[in-house]
Amino acid sequence: MDGVKNYIQLLGRVIVGAFLLFNAFNHFANLGMMTAYAASKVVPLPSLAVLGSGLLLAAAGLSLLLGYRIDIGIAALALFLLPVTLMMHDFWNVEGQARVAEMVNFIKNFAILGSSLVWLVAPSPLPLSLESWLAARGRSKVVTRPLEQH
Description:
Layout: H1 2-29, H2 31-40, H3 46-66, H4 70-88, H5 96-116, H6 130-136
């Protein structure tokens, strides 16, 4: 059964990692449009903010996808989600359909942040991950976290 759980966990990492990488790519591919939207929300240095947020998403996505330094990936995700959610999806400042759209994105971002915290307490190294592959070869400097039994 552990083998099945390992593959389910890998599938979850691939889905979330791919989602984050897709959004990172979107930041870079649509830099002009995203910069204009950030500027409309009075984000300081909007072009730099969009590039920086794309890099944070890429770091988080790669971390989850590869299963390497999940702690850094989740920190990058939190650094992206907290300011973006509060500044860009300020549903309390808009009316009508825009309010609904911003509220959906606000709630979605906090749900992603909340669910991502689970990875911080997962056993380390994760099964079927780059970290576990490196650890098996004595090349990982990452401290292991066993799963605590209750």
